[in-house]
C-alpha cells in the first residue's frame, strides 16, 4: 500500500513531467503519434499531411500503416513536396517501424546518425530529395535493412566501408550522387545482394575481383563513373545470375569480357562508351541466348559482325555504333525474330515494399540522345553507324517489320537502297547518309506513314525523289544534299520529264504539276512586276517631255 508521502512524491513527479517542454524530453518519451506530429511541425508545405492531427487515430493518417497492436509499421509519403529535414524525427519512439519511404520530396540537410535507431527498419528510401553530406557510418547498425535507396541526392565522400556489415541487404541504390573513391573488397560479403545501382557518381579504381562471388546478384549498374582496368574474370565453379549489366561510360579496357559467357540469363548488356577492343565473340549468339538489349557503341571493336548474333531470337535493340567494324552486314540479320514481331521486355518485381527495377538504355533516337526506361519494351531498332562496313544493304533487312529505327550512316555501304524498304511499316527513323549508295530512292518508301526522320545525304543517288503523303512533309532539302543526280521536291532541281500523264492529273503527277505551277507563277509574277514598272517609267518620261516642250514653245513666243 502506497503511503501518503510516496503518493505526494509521485504526484509531484507527474506534475513536473507535465510541465516540462516537449523539446526538453529525451528520446523515447514521445509516443509514435507525438513523434510524427513533432516532425510534421518542423516541416514546410505539409498540406498532404492534413490528416495528421490528434483528433484522428495515427493508423488513419495519410501514408501511415499500422501493424500488431496498432504500432506504426509503415510511413510512406512519396512526392508530396515536403520541405525540411529528418533531424527532428524522434526515431527512438518508432521502434516498430519497418518501412520509411520519403522519396520524391524536397527534404534536405544531412541524414541524421540517429536514424540507425530504427532497428526494425527493412526499407529506407530517401531518393529524389536534397540530402547532402556523407552517409553516416551508423547505418551499419541497421542489421534488418533489406533495401537502402538514396539515389538522386547530393551525397558525397566515400561509400562507408562499414556498410559491408549490412549482410541482409538485397537492394542497394546509391546512384546519381557525388560519391568518390574506390569500392572495398568487403562489399563482396553481401551474399544476399540482388540489385546494386552505383551509376552516375565519381567512383574510381578497378572492380574487386570477388564480384562474381555474389551468386544472387541479378541487376548491376556501374555506368557513368570513372572505373578503369579490365573486367575481373570468374574463378572456376562460379556461376552468374545477372540479367541486367550496365558498365557504360567508364574507362574499362580489354577484350569483350569473357566472363559473360557464363551469364546465360543476361537480357540487358550495355558496355558502351568504354575502351574495349578486339573482335566481337561469336559465342554471344549461343551462350547468352536471352539477350534483348545489346549496346557496344563507342568502343574500339574491330573485325566483322558475327552472323551468329542472328541466333538471338529475343533481341530488340542492337547498337554497335562508333566502332571500327568492317565487312558486310550479315544477311542472317533478316532472321532476328523479335525484330519481326516485337515482344515486351520483362520487368522484375521484388517483394512488397521494395522497388520495381526496369531496364533502361541510352539511345540515339531521331538525332537526340534519350534515355528509354519505362517505355523500353516498345523500342526496336538497329544502329550500326560510324563504322567501316561495306557491301550492299541486305534486302533481308526488310523482313524486320517491327523496326522503329534503322541507322546505317557513316559507313562505306554501296549498291542501292533495298526496293522492299516500304515493308518496314513501323519505321519512324531511317538514316542512310554518308555512304556510297547509288541508284534511285525506291518509290515504296512513300508508303511509310510513320516516317518522321529520313536522311540519305552524301551518297550517289539519282532520279526523282518519291512523292507521297508522309514523305512530302519532310521539307528540309539538306536530307538529300550531296546527291548530284536527285531532283524534285524539296530540291530546287527540276526533273527532266515534266509532261502530264495522258489520263489527266492525279496522284504523283498532281503533286509534280502543282510544284511546277508554283515555280511558273513566281516567274510570271516577277515578269509582270518588271513590265508594269517599265510602263510607268515610260509614261512618266513622256509626260515630262511634253511639259518641257510646251514650256519651251511658250518662252519662244514671248521673246518675239
Notes on the protein architecture:
There is one protein chain. This protein is α/β, with parallel strands linked by helices. Among the domains are: 17-181, Leucine-rich repeat, LRR (right-handed beta-alpha superhelix), CATH 3.80.10.10; 328-342 and 380-493, Ribonuclease Inhibitor (Leucine-rich repeat, LRR (right-handed beta-alpha superhelix)); 498-541. The chain is built from five helices and 36 strands. The strands form five sheets. Strands 1-2-4-6-8-10-12-14-16-18-20-22-28-30-32-34 form a 16-stranded mixed sheet, with no helix packed on it. Strands 3-5-7-9-11-13-15-17-19-21-23-29-31 form a 13-stranded parallel sheet, with no helix packed on it. The protein has a three-stranded parallel sheet with strand order 33-35-36, with no helix packed on it. The termini are far apart. Mean pLDDT is 82; it is low at 1-29, 344-356, 498-518 and 534-560.
Amino- and carboxy-terminal Cα gap: 157 Å
Anisotropy-based shape: elongated
Can you count the beta strands? 36
Instruction: Spell out the CATH superfamily of the domain at 17-181.
Output: Ribonuclease Inhibitor
The DSSP helix count reads 5
CATH topology of the domain at 17-181: Leucine-rich repeat, LRR (right-handed beta-alpha superhelix)
Q: Hey, roughly how much beta strand do the residues contain? A: 15-25%
CATH architecture descriptor text of the domain at 17-181: Alpha-Beta Horseshoe
The low-pLDDT segments are 1-29, 344-356, 498-518, 534-560
Helix content: 10-25%
Rg for CA atoms: 36 Å
- Helix and strand content put the structural class at alpha/beta
For the record, what CATH class of the domain at 17-181 applies? Answer: Alpha Beta
Looking across the biggest beta sheet, what order are the strands in? 1-2-4-6-8-10-12-14-16-18-20-22-28-30-32-34
Q: Please, what is the average pLDDT?
A: 82
Largest sheet: number of strands, sense, barrel closure: 16 strands, mixed
Amino acid at each position: 500500500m502506497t503511503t501518503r508521502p510516496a503518493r505526494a512524491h509521485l504526484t509531484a513527479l507527474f506534475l513536473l513531467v507535465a510541465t516540462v517542454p516537449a523539446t526538453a524530453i529525451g528520446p523515447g518519451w514521445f509516443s509514435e503519434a507525438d513523434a510524427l506530429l513533432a516532425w510534421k511541425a518542423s516541416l514546410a508545405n505539409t498540406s498532404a499531411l492534413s490528416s495528421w492531427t490528434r483528433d484522428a487515430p495515427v493508423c488513419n493518417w495519410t501514408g501511415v500503416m499500422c501493424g500488431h497492436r496498432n504500432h506504426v509499421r509503415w510511413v510512406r509519403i512519396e512526392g508530396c513536396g515536403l520541405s525540411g529535414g529528418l533531424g527532428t524525427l524522434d526515431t527512438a519512439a518508432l521502434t516498430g517501424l519497418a518501412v520509411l519511404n520519403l522519396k520524391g520530396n524536397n527534404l534536405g540537410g544531412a541524414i541524421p546518425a540517429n536514424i540507425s535507431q530504427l532497428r526494425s527498419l527493412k526499407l529506407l528510401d530517401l531518393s529524389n530529395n536534397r540530402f547532402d553530406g556523407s552517409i553516416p557510418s551508423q547505418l551499419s547498425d541497421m542489421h534488418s535493412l533489406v533495401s537502402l535507396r538514396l539515389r538522386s541526392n547530393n551525397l558525397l565522400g566515400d561509400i562507408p566501408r562499414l556498410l559491408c556489415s549490412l549482410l541482409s541487404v538485397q537492394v542497394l541504390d546509391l546512384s546519381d550522387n557525388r560519391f568518390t573513391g574506390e569500392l572495398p573488397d568487403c562489399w563482396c560479403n553481401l551474399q544476399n545482394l540482388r540489385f546494386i545501382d552505383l551509376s552516375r557518381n565519381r567512383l574510381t579504381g578497378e572492380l574487386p575481383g570477388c564480384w562474381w562471388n555474389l551468386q544472387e546478384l541479378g541487376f548491376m549498374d556501374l555506368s557513368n563513373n570513372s572505373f578503369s582496368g579490365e573486367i575481373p574474370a570468374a574463378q572456376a565453379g562460379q556461376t552468374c545470375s545477372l540479367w541486367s549489366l550496365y558498365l557504360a561510360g567508364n574507362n574499362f579496357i580489354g577484350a569483350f569480357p569473357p566472363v559473360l559467357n557464363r551469364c546465360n540469363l543476361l537480357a540487358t548488356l550495355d558496355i558502351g562508351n568504354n575502351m574495349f577492343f578486339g573482335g566481337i565473340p561469336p559465342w554471344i549468339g549461343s551462350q547468352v541466348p536471352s539477350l534483348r538489349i545489346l549496346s557496344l557503341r563507342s568502343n574500339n571493336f574491330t573485325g566483322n559482325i558475327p552472323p551468329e548474333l542472328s541466333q538471338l531470337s529475343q533481341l530488340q535493340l542492337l547498337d554497335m555504333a562508333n566502332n571500327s567494324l568492317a565487312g558486310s552486314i550479315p544477311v542472317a540479320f533478316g532472321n532476328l525474330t523479335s525484330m519481326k514481331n516485337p515482344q515486351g521486355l520483362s520487368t522484375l518485381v521484388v517483394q512488397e515494399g521494395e522497388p520495381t527495377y526496369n531496364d533502361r538504355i541510352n539511345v540515339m533516337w531521331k538525332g537526340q540522345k534519350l534515355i528509354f526506361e519505362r517505355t523500353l519494351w516498345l523500342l526496336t531498332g538497329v544502329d550500326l553507324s560510324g563504322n567501316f562496313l561495306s557491301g550492299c544493304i541486305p534486302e533481308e533487312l526488310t523482313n524486320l517489320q517491327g523496326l522503329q529505327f534503322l541507322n546505317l550512316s557513316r559507313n562505306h555501304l554501296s549498291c542501292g537502297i533495298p526496293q522492299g524498304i516500304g515493308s518496314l511499316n513501323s519505321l519512324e527513323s531511317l538514316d542512310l547518309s554518308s555512304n556510297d549508295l547509288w541508284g534511285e530512292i525506291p518509290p515504296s518508301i512513300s508508303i511509310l506513314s510513320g516516317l518522321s526522320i529520313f536522311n540519305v545525304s552524301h551518297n550517289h543517288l539519282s532520279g526523282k525523289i518519291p512523292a507521297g503523303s508522309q514523305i512530302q512533309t519532310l521539307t528540309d532539302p539538306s536530307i538529300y544534299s550531296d546527291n548530284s543526280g536527285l531532283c524534285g521536291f524539296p530540291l530546287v532541281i527540276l526533273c527532266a520529264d515534266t509532261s502530264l500523264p495522258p489520263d489527266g492529273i492525279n496522284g504523283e503527277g498532281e503533286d509534280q504539276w502543282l510544284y511546277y505551277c508554283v515555280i511558273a507563277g513566281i516567274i510570271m509574277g516577277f515578269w509582270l512586276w518588271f513590265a508594269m514598272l517599265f510602263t510607268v517609267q515610260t509614261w512618266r518620261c513622256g509626260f515630262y517631255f511634253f511639259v518641257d516642250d510646251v514650256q519651251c514653245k511658250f518662252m519662244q513666243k514671248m521673246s518675239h
